[in-house]
Amino acid sequence: MAKRRSCPVIGETISHYRILGKLGRGGMGEVYEAEDTRLGRHVALKFIPEQLAHDPKSLERFEREARAASQLNHPNICIIHDVDDNNGHPFIVMEKLEGETLKQRLHQGRLNLEQMLDVAVQIADALVASHEKGIIHRDIKPGNIFLTKGGQAKILDFGLAKSLRDPTITSDSGVPAEDSITGAGLLPGTAVYMSPEQARDEELDARSDIFSFGVVLYEMATGRKPFSGTNIVNILDAVMNRKPPSPRALNPVLPMELENIIGRAMEKNREKRYQSFSDMRADLEILRKQTESALLAQEPRPHAKVLRATKTFQTTSRLHLYLLLGTIAVLLMLVAVFGTWWYRHRNEGLSGEKTIAVLPLQNLSGDSSLDYLRFALSDEIANVLTYSRSLDVRPSAETRKYGAADVDPQGVAQKLHVATVVTGHFIHEGDGLLITLEAIDAGSDRMLWQATLRSTPNQLLRLQEQLDAQVRQGLLPILGAAGGFLETSTRPRNPEAYDLYLRSAAVSHDPNPNKQAIAMLERAVGLDPSYAPAWEALGLRYYYDATYSNGGEEVFQRSNRCYERALALDPNRIVAAGQLIANRVERGELGKAYQQAQALVKSRPESAEAHFALAYVLRYAGMLEQSVAECNTAISLDPGNYQFRSCAWAFMELANSERAWNFVQLDAGSEWAAYVTPSLLLREGKLAEAREAVKVMPTNRRYHRDLLEACLGLRPAADADRLAERALAQDPQEADPENWYYEGSLFAFCGKNRAALHMFQLAIDQNYCSYSNLLSDPLLNKLRADPAIDPVLTAAGRCQDAVRQGPVQ
Fold first, then answer.
1. Are 581 and 595 in contact (CB under 8 A)?
2. Which of 418, 500, 787, 800 lies 20 to 30 A from 748 at CA?
3. pTM score over 0.90
4. DSSP annotation of 697
5. Catalytic site positions
6. Going by DSSP bridges, is the β-strand pair 392-393/355-358 parallel, antiparallel, or unpaired?
7. 3-state secondary structure of 45
8. Which of 96, 103, 90 is nearest to 32 (CA)?
């Protein structure tokens, strides 16, 4: 019987894929559109060409692409669904993409700045994820970057990829043929996009991809390749020894910051390059936000002016046209100069200029009955400040501990990483209340603003109006943050309700006091149901009661309803939006939460809470690489915010223990930190230290201290067997599926594979997708040898697909 062809024909069915047509070439393969007859979806099948089907090195590269790409799970990397075989001829099953490659797009000329930065940030984000997995692409070029019709950029073809961790993604000899530019006459990638060390046949690391990506940026920005020659030898000589023309010499409208980014990426000496894609991505993201702000501020946009200038040519003299074009050039130059100045100065010093913290006020009257105003008034000031799009306001949870009378504003500013600190005091004399507020520049210790307000304890509604007016008309303009203020129609209307709301702000979140605050806020919203901040505060109190006390599921659902009510009254309540997303995540509504979190970041990119909300969703979606990127953004916007502590889980499950410790330290000394520490030590392999840490763990049932003790030899081994059998026989007690994964990871470490896989599947069924976790978590190292993990991993992948597609309408 004749052997089957390695490349199919139209209408043919291979395995369960019906061939619909040929899409073209992809790397070293032939790509066809096909229908997956089992799942009813269209996919792309990549076959090795007939002439290479029996070449061991070509087959090795083909398989290497599948292994490398399948380890990565990122929206900007082409998804590998499966690898199958057609009578000895392997093929890769990939997502089908609609659009064109960047190479095809560049045939039309260079990209505009906005589009280029959008593509650049997406690809940089994907390469951050790839490098965190230890995978170097080694063939970054326009032909391997795909631009979908929906505006998404995707990296293709990991056929030359090299893993710094996984020997299966290199040849058996340990030195892939493609590592040598002379080996077997092969050249890795296209010469013009190679790094100098790649051209010199040196050992490669992640910085090689950074150089190649710099070349791609250069071409996107200028429409020209930076290196040229009549043959490969000349091109390689230029790559290694010649400096290309300045990008701005070829495209003068480019910002200086972009030229600096490209120049740093394309340094011949890799020690002078960006040392990680995370750093490069951060610079690109800053420039993109700066550019978006500039575009929003322009009315009309520059291209509209050029169109008008062209139209004017038909009705004016040539001299008038020259004058018009000259004016436009001057305006563009001024915009560029201002943009450069703004970009440089916004990054000077320890903190950004638009960061601010409001400290508790001092009660100088000695009247303890008014102590609640110390926190209530500072919260109200911060509340007004949060409506400025350009300000990053530290939450009161961070500032409350700085309420001592002798607090040093400069010292607090350093700890909170802010440029401005608002302090103040109040005095109660007779029926009057005199309040004094000050804003202090942390760098110079200079007072920027001062305001005095007069009221009485019985006229708090009037006081709120005064605070709002003073902050909006006085403080915000001085900070340069008056523009883009988000208006709100929700104002306190009932004096008693507003007093209860303010008093509740000073009440602790410990279980019993928290219930007292709930009673106050329930009364407040009953008296004044139109005041959004009160609903938001009540939602948070209900969440604490349900999660850390005995409120139960009914109270948890009340929390959701409160947040929904707050957002219906005022869509700009960032805390309510973020908390509602987190609540939905913890109850399995992941698709809806994913869409809402993306929209929140898009509408409030300056908000650390928005980025943390997205990080939280991505963690539950099993997209840990993307989650840690959002965690890094959140903590860079608001360093020291202990509410971001749970990011530690994503880092530790990606085996990045150093970064995980950084987030644990945000809440050092807490019960939560004592709970997390043993898990982190286990993942570091520090068993003796983990045993000691378990001894001081809280005994809350959800922390599974008993299982940890059994696995670490602090209890009889039979206890682990008993706990595993109980897990297989009973449904989990906790409602949050992340706790189910946590319990499963402990079973995996303890060698109780059936119980581990059972808990993982339960978590996936409740939309804790855990895809990256299953591939990366150090506690699962032994479990991965068990073939029974394969269907669980497949289920995790499907869980992720469902999240990306969004909730079923």
1. no
2. 800
3. no
4. S
5. 139
6. parallel
7. strand
8. 96
